[in-house]
Structures are given as C-alpha cells and as structure tokens.
Design brief:
Layout lengths: L1 E2 L2 H21 L6 E7 L3 H17 L2 E7 L5 H13 L5 E4 L9 H7 L11 H8 L8 H12 L8 E5 L6 H9 L6 E5 L6 H5 L4 E4 L17 E4 L3 E4 L7 E4 L4 H4 L5 E2 L6 H20 L1
Helix pairs in contact: 1-10, 2-10, 6-7, 6-10
C-alpha cells in the first residue's frame, strides 16, 4: 500500500506556479489576482478560504477576501459579483459555497463571467469541459486527475466507481475519466444505487465523494484497488485544540491494507483542490494579459 501524498504534490506544483509568476513579474506583467467572496461564518468555509489566501501568498499571487454576513441580500451579492466581473485587476474569483438557503447558488454561479469562473462551476465551463474543449475545470476533479497522473496510476481501460454525483465532484470527474485519451469505464453511484457494495468491490479505482464519514468499509473495496477519498466531514473530537477533526468517506485503517494506493484525510485530495484553483487563476491571468 502506498499513500498518495497530496500535500507533497501540491507543494511541488506551488513551486512550479511560483516560478511562472516570478518570470511574469520580471517581464513587467502583474501578478495573478484571485478574489474570494465569503458569506457567513461556516467553519469549513472559513478554514478553506484561509488556506486559499495563504496559498496565494506562497506563490506570489495577489488575493482579496470579501466578506458578507449570512443575512446578506441576494441582490447585494449579485452586485458585488458584477463589480468583480468588471474589475480588470481581478483575474479570477470564487464565491465560496455553501451559501445561505435564502440565496440561489445557481443564480450567483451563472452571474460570474465564465472567463473569471476559476471554480469551474459556470454552465459554460461545465459544457466546454464535457465535450473536451479548453475550460476551467472544477478544482477537486482537476486535483484528482493531477494526483493520478503524477503517481503514474494507469487509468485506460480501468473500471472506475465514483460514489457521489454532485455537480462539484462526482459528475465532472466521471466526464474527465471517461473522455477519449483517458479511457476509463466509469460507474456513478448514489443514494438510490442498489447493491452498492458489490459494485464498488469491482472497482479498480474507487472514488468516495458522498460526504458521509467512514462510509466505505473494507468489504466494499477490491484487493489492490486505488482508493481516492474526497470526504472532509468535520467530526467533534476531544483530542484536538479546535474541538473537531476531519474525517474522510473511507474507513481508512481497515481499507488501506487492501489498497495499492490510497489518499489520506487530511493531506490527500484537499491540498490539490487549492492548488488546482491556483492553476486556474494563472490560466485566467495569462488570458487576461
């Protein structure tokens, strides 16, 4: 069993990005500028955005964090999105999800200019990605693809099972893995899937993205499988200073011995999600030059 070290790969990619940024600045070009809108004080979102701001500093990006309370009016939020769309100094921006229930996430996503949508959630980017055209690919699927590539994990002809069909992870990842040139055979499972344990036990590559802590157990995993754990559930813990810890969707201790490769939580997919966002922002900056 080999651990897939997302933290290490993310650091390597950050160094590659930092070199590119340094070269741009030496040519008299401005550093890439990423903005983030954060609504409310969700613990997971706060942590994630803080990591993004720190990552921007590490690679030489400019970053702007715009905060709103969770009682913000949808129209006010849309006006801010419109302002960022028009701001030529901002190369790309994200609106951190989830948003309060009073706000339509889809309406906000569709208000972002596709060329500044570095989260890759806009229907234009999703559509282009689905037919293999250049597009901003949502950060978690892009990060997973990069991990598989950097660990030289064979995908062509492999049976891939994805547990979870979200628009942010499961669906886009299923498209990326089944595209010509990648050539996996992909099964997408969800809460209504019958005999899920039998289907997952046939996977050469199993991706757990269902959002239920330790959902995947050893009996659901084939001997020698590659397991990618996308889960990041915050579970109460009296052993940490913060009072909580991150748990993946995979019961790591019992599943890991069966795997050829497995991502830990934390330190697996998470760092790659942030670095993929930086890669998208760098592309946006190049397009904006």
């Amino acid at each position: 069993m080999q651990l897939i070290d997302g933290k290490k790969i993310a650091q390597t990619i950050k160094e590659e990005i930092a070199e590119t940024v340094k070269s741009r600045i030496e040519k008299g070009e401005k550093p890439p500028h990423l903005a983030a809108i954060l609504v409310g004080h969700d613990g997971g979102s706060e942590t994630y955005v803080a990591h993004k701001v720190k990552a921007c500093e590490q690679v030489g990006f400019k970053s702007t964090l715009i905060r709103f309370e969770d009682n913000v009016n949808e129209e006010v939020l849309l006006k801010k999105v419109e302002g960022l769309n028009k701001d030529n100094d901002i190369d790309g921006f994200i609106v951190q999800l989830p948003l309060p229930k009073t706000i339509s996430e889809q309406r906000i996503i569709e208000a972002i200019l596709p060329e500044k949508d570095v989260d890759g959630f806009h229907p234009v980017n999703v559509g282009k990605m689905s037919i293999g055209l250049p597009a901003f690919i949502s950060a978690t699927p892009a990060g997973i693809m990069e991990l598989l590539k950097r660990y030289s994990i064979e995908i062509s002809g492999k049976n891939v099972v994805i547990i979870g069909r979200s628009n942010i992870v499961g669906r886009p990842l299923s498209i990326l893995l089944s595209q010509k040139g990648v050539d996996a055979t992909v099964t997408v499972c969800h809460s209504r899937t019958k005999n899920l344990d039998k289907i997952s036990a046939n996977a050469d590559i199993l991706v757990a993205a269902i959002g239920i802590p330790e959902f995947v157990t050893a009996d659901m995993v084939k001997e020698g499988a590659v397991v990618i754990d996308v889960g990041t559930s915050r579970v109460k813990s009296d052993k940490t200073k913060s009072g909580w810890k991150l748990k993946g969707d995979v019961k790591f201790n019992e599943v890991a011995p069966k795997c050829s490769f497995i991502t830990p939580v934390p330190g697996g997919v998470g760092p790659m999600t942030i670095v993929s966002l930086l890669q998208n922002t760098l592309i946006a900056a190049k397009n904006n030059s």
